[in-house]
Amino acid sequence: MVTITVDMDKCQHYGQCCFEADDVFALNDDGQLEYVAEADESRRADIESAADVCPMQAITVK
Amino acid sequence: MAATVLVVGAGLGGLRAAEALRGAGFEGAITVVGDEPAMPYNRPPLSKEALSAGVHVAELEFRRKPSVSDVDWRLGSPAIASDFAARTVTLADGTHLSFDGLVIASGIRPRRLPIAGPEAGRHVLRTAHDAMNLRNYLMPGRTAVIMGAGFIGCEVAATARGLGAEVHIVAIDEQPMVRPLGAELGMGMRSRHEHHGVKFHLGRTVQSFLGGEHITSVLLDDGTELPASVVVEAVGSVCNVEWLAGNGLDLTDGLLVDQAMVVAAEVPVVAVGDIARHPNALFGNVPRRIEHWNIPTETGRRAGASLASLLRGEQPDQAPFAAMPSFWSDQYQYKLQSFGMPGLATSIQIVEGTADDACIVEYSDESGLVGVVGVDRTAELAPYRKQLLER
Ligand SMILES: Cc1cc2nc3c(=O)[nH]c(=O)nc-3n(C[C@H](O)[C@H](O)[C@H](O)COP(=O)(O)OP(=O)(O)OC[C@H]3O[C@@H](n4cnc5c(N)ncnc54)[C@H](O)[C@@H]3O)c2cc1C
Ligand code: SF4
Predict the structure, then answer these.
(1) Do B328 and A14 touch (CB under 8 A)?
(2) Residue B382: exposed, middle, or buried by beta-carbon count in 10 A (0-12, 13-18, 19+)?
(3) What is the domain extent for residue B102?
(4) Chain B residue numbers touching A19 (CB-CB < 8 A)
(5) Shared domain check, B91 and B19
(6) Is the domain of B289 the same as that of B364?
(7) 8-state DSSP, B140
(8) DSSP B221-283
(9) Are both B16 and B72 inside the same structural domain?
(10) Is the pLDDT of residue A31 over 60?
(11) Which residues of B fall below an 8 Å CB-CB distance to A?
(12) CA of B202 relative to ligand 1 center, distance in Å
């Protein structure tokens, strides 16, 4: 299992993470980030990619 | 014997290249040389939240993947020379380092203009150290004169106003951020800044700095004299290429790389980030340097993989490089987000909202859509980005 946490104090809702793993990260209709906290191991590479491209470096992947 | 890779430049591009080397199975030694004393850290906050709230480098450091925990970081002394034939790099402290493969990740620095007058009070903004120094001046009762109306100048203006300083922007352009945004949105951004108390001197240049030891005012080419506690020079950049002289490379605009980020396959050498003049298949493969934060990651991944292949004696992946340039900017409460290359546009159209409010702007040339910018409408840009990827 991949565990995902986003520091919502840091997140600026740029949505860059969504382009790397749109099954995990999405901006809702109000432009706010929503994400799932756990994903299948097979999604790890894309989720780490999302953490890499986050301008605020708000995403932690375990 | 296992090969050794040397990375020159301990910024985002250098870090991502090191991670990508490991990701591609490179098991040799990796040494990263950096002239700044800090581990790779995030620069964009230096004109925004960190300039506003305080600069703590440790909090800005990038998380590093476990795969690079064995990298040898040699920080605090720049590379001053290199010899591709001998495969060596010389540092300012006299150290000679040899390599089997080299990553050029030394980035850019702010351009300085030769202007007469006192030096004290002239500031640039690239490093955490620069931001700490500048921050001391941004407070009520002080006046900042910002030279240049690009993104960094405008972000510093917004942050400085938030800290209570008076702000003047002096720029030769007719509107702020006119090249990347176009005149109409530039004007819209200008009215936002004016609403927050910034005074613009557009179409103007700085003639000289006045004062004794320290700058006290700035004289413009039309004779206007602006009081100044501090001057911020944000008038473009120069590539950190001096250490590469003597290797027969064209160093006039960074380093030319191919779609695999390779500078010279026979050495082998790759380049990443702000310094790499790279082709992009989405935009006609014309080699360009792109000073956007997502580029060091995209080019770093590609360069690391290419270098790992070359060191195994294999050809690097020759697939086209087609990363989407993406840029954001925060000024006051406004959020700009850009995808593609709006600067290439020959026609610009506001498709949602108005330039002085939340809006979406399309940038096109004869080939179709080349870029999109949203102000406070980030969530709605995804379809435009998709359209750009399908170019
Ligand atoms: C204040 C500021 C705000 C920004 N805001 C945004 C933004 O909002 N959005 C956006 O998309 N982009 C932004 N950027 C741009 C983004 O930060 C850069 O594109 C990115 O940092 C480039 O990474 P890099 O690794 O190529 O270069 P750098 O991060 O500059 O790393 C290069 C490193 O190499 C070192 N070096 C240089 N010469 C030598 C040498 N001879 N020997 C050893 N080391 C050397 C440098 O000191 C530096 O540490 C901003 C930049 C700045 C400065
Ligand atoms: S990329 Fe980072 S800042 Fe942007 S929405 Fe995702 S977590 Fe938030």
Answers:
(1) yes
(2) middle
(3) 4-109+237-311
(4) 324, 382, 385
(5) yes
(6) no
(7) T
(8) TTS-EEE-SEEEE-S-EEE--GGGTTSS---BTBEE--TT-EEETTTTEEE-GGGEEB--GGG
(9) yes
(10) yes
(11) 16, 42, 44, 62-63, 65, 293-294, 297, 324, 326, 328, 330, 335, 337, 377-379, 381-382, 385
(12) 27
B62 and B84 share one domain: yes
Q: Which residue of B has its CA nearest to A52?
A: B297
Query: CB neighbours of B356 closer than 8 A, spacing ≥ 6?
Result: B188, B191, B192
Q: Which residues of B246-258 are buried (b: 16+ CB within 10 A; e: fewer)?
A: ebebeeeebbbbb
Is B379 part of any domain?
A: yes
Query: Of B255, B279, B311, at which residue does a domain stop?
Result: B311
Pocket residues: Cβ below 6 A from ligand 2 = A 6, 11-17, 25, 33, 54-56, 58-59
Q: Which of the residues in chain B have pLDDT under 70?
A: 1
Q: Which ligand is nearest to the CA of A31?
A: 2
Tell me, what's the pLDDT at A30?
87
Nearest to A14 among B16, B65, B378 (CB): B378
Closest CA to B48 of B150, B147, B158: B158
Contact B226, B168 (CB under 8 A): yes
Total domains in the fold of chain B: 3
- Asked whether the beta carbons of residue A55 and residue B337 sit closer than 8 angstroms, the reply is no
CA distance B287 to chain A (A): 23
Which residues in chain B have their CB less than 8 angstroms from residue A13's CB? Answer: 378-379
CATH number at residue B356: 3.30.390.30
Same domain, B180 and B130: yes
Report the pLDDT value the prediction gives residue A29, as an integer from 0 to 100.
87
d(CA B297, CA B287): 18
Compute, in angstroms, the gap from residue A50 CA to the centroid of ligand 1: 20
Would you call B94 exposed, middle or buried from its count of C-beta atoms within 10 A (0-12, 13-18, 19+)?
Answer: exposed
Q: How far apart are CA B277 and CA B136, in angstroms?
A: 36
Same domain (yes/no): B155, B229: yes
User: Domain A2-61 - what CATH class?
Assistant: alpha beta
CATH number at residue B218: 3.50.50.60
Which of B22, B328, B377, B390 is best to mutate for the A interface (most A CBs within 10 A)?
B328
Task: Please tell me whether residue B29 adopts helix, strand or coil conformation.
Answer: strand
State the DSSP code for B61. B
- Closest chain A residue to the Cα of B338, Cα to Cα: A14
Mutate to test the pocket of ligand 1, among B6, B12, B135, B334 (most ligand atoms within 8 A of CB): B12
Both B300 and B259 in one domain: the answer is: yes
